Structure formats: structure tokens, C-alpha cells
Amino acid sequence: MAALVSKQITVIVCFAVLDLLAVIAMGLRFYSMTVVHRKIKIHDVLCIVSLVMLIAYSIDLLVGTIAGGIGLHRLQVPIPTMETGLKAFFSSQFFWAISIASFRLAILDFYVQAFPTRIFQYFAYGAMTIVCLFFVGSITTTLAMCRPIVSNWDLNIHGKCGDEGTAELAAAAFNMALDIGIVVLPVPVIWGLHMSKQKKAAVMATFALSLGISAINLARIIQVLRCSLSDFTYCTADSAILTVAEMAVGIIVACVPMLGPVIFPERRRRFDKRYVYQPNKTSYGSSQKHSRQHSDSQGSTEMALGPGWDKRQNMQYTEIHNKVLPPTPVKVRQGEIAVWREFEVQSDADNRV
């Protein structure tokens, strides 16, 4: 095997670093799930699929780089070696299409679960439909670009091929528009939440990380315009680095909203064990358990008790994880006060309810 040139070494190093960052983000995502006791959901599965396709893409083009001449100028690559590189490039496009569709669907599925507003969900499902259609279009374009298909890599067969440069340019432009649309989609809902402007800005900044994917797609457009496909093997090296960056950043962006308990360790205790108590139908009052645990706390709950209250009847406790139950409607007689309150079981060092 011939010695690798600097361009090929750059491809290998960039692939390794970007893949490692994506794997770390995914590992932190699942560690966060264990902290908050959350079960695996559809968007978690989609992120796994995207990561697997990213690794498959990287391995495929690493083979094309080491054994197929990617990173070398076309005149430096023997025809048998070039055919290996062309095979690797052709198959890599399927891994890319699956990966970007998966992490986008993961982000949109998270939107649907995080913002359960009917109108917003209609827009989110519409965006999912566009993502799926783009995925189908990408696969169809790859399969139909050259006829017969074997002419994509067999240079001895003179097939008919479409304009690959125009197709790649159109795909990058549409990708950029789609990423911007996914970023903008939840902004009206987030801004309408009942929270401080600082927190709203922080939440939107998290989602705005998706603009990094748009920036990568813009760089791909510039790369397509700058580099001639007549030197295919050399141009593919830079394009492959940007493509891996697109997939890796997309996976990281899909994982960031889940990393709160990891990024802010002081908040983990609120997920360790959470109880919500609700009054039953025949009594009002705080339980002896609640009184014993929080008697010294500032701002403890006080209740005005009506006649006939039975102290032997305790509140109904429900242990939950990463979920807040809505208050149960309670009928209140004149002269009585009913209190529903959520509280967290915390360490003695933090003596707050």
C-alpha cells in the first residue's frame, strides 16, 4: 500500500474526531436517561440509527480513501483503484441519506413531545413528511443518476449519467433550507411559554445549534462550486469531511436538549425521587409523612381544616420520575381551603421544599 498523502491523513483524522464527538454525545444522552429514569423513546432510537449510519459512512469512505485513491488527484489514481473509490462513494450516499433523515426526525419527534400544541404538531408532522420525501428523493436520485447502475463505478461501461454537480448543489441548498426551517419551527411556541426572557433565550439558543448544520451545508455548496468534478477523487475528500461533520453535528444537536442533568449536575437531585400528593375525595390535609419530613422547612404548607377532618386519613402519594402530574380538581366547602402542592425529596444539605 502506498504512503498516504496529507489530504488522506486529514480525512482519517477528521472522521475519527467527528465520530468520537457523536459517540460521546450519544453516550451522555443515555447516561442522562438513567439519571432521570426515562424510558427509551422513538427519538432515541432514531438517534441510534443516525449514529450507526454515520459510522458506516465513515468506514465506507475510509476504505475509499485508503484503497480507492480518495484524496489524490485523478491522474495519480490507477483505474482499478479508482473503481474501488467510486464504489465506496456510491454506497456512502445511502448511509448519508438515512443518517440525516434519522436525526432530523429525532429532532422533530422531540418537538412533538415537548410542545403538545395541536397546531404546532400539525406543522411538525408536516416537516416530518418533507424530511421523508427528501429521503426518498435522495435515494431515487442516487439510483437513477447513471444507467446502468454499474456505470457509477465501472469505467469500462459507457452509461448515461445526469449532472452530478447540479444534483449535489441542489441537495445541499435544500438541506440548508430544511435545517433553517426546523430551527425556526419551535420559536413561536418557545416565546409563548411562561418563563423569563433569559430562559426563553437559553432554550432557543439550544435549538439554534441546528444552524451549525446549515453552515456546513453552505460550506458544501461553496465546495461544489469551487472544485471541478473532473478531479473527482481529490474533491471528494473535502466533501466527505463536510458530510461527516453534517451528520455528527446533527446527532449532537439532537442530543443536546437531553443533556440538562449532565451539563448541570446540581439539578440531578430533583430527578432522584419525586413525589406528588393529592387529596382524596373525603379529606383535606397534609400527611404525617409530609409534616415529619418538612416541619423545619421555610414556607411549609399550611392548611385551614374544615370540621370533621379525619387525621387518620393521609394524602395519596404517587411516586413518579421525570413527570409532573396535573392538579386534581377538588370540591371545597365554604370556610375550607384545599391545597395541592408538588414537592421534591432533597438532601439535608438543601433544606428547601
From TrEMBL:
Stretches assigned to the Rhodopsin domain: 28-263
Give the record's family classification: Belongs to the SAT4 family.
State where the protein is found.
Answer: Membrane
Membrane-spanning segments: 6-25, 45-73, 93-112, 124-150, 170-191, 203-222, 242-264
Stretches for region Disordered: 280-308
> Superkingdom of this entry's organism?
Eukaryota
What is the name listed in the Swiss-Prot or TrEMBL entry for this protein? Rhodopsin domain-containing protein
Major subcellular site: membrane
Fetch the Pfam families from UniProt.
Answer: Fung_rhodopsin
Provide a GO CC annotation, any one.
membrane
Membrane topology field: Multi-pass membrane protein
Q: Which InterPro entries match?
A: Rhodopsin_dom_fungi (IPR049326), SAT4-like (IPR052337)
Residues making up the signal peptide according to the UniProt record: none
Which UniProt key words apply to this protein? Membrane, Transmembrane, Transmembrane helix
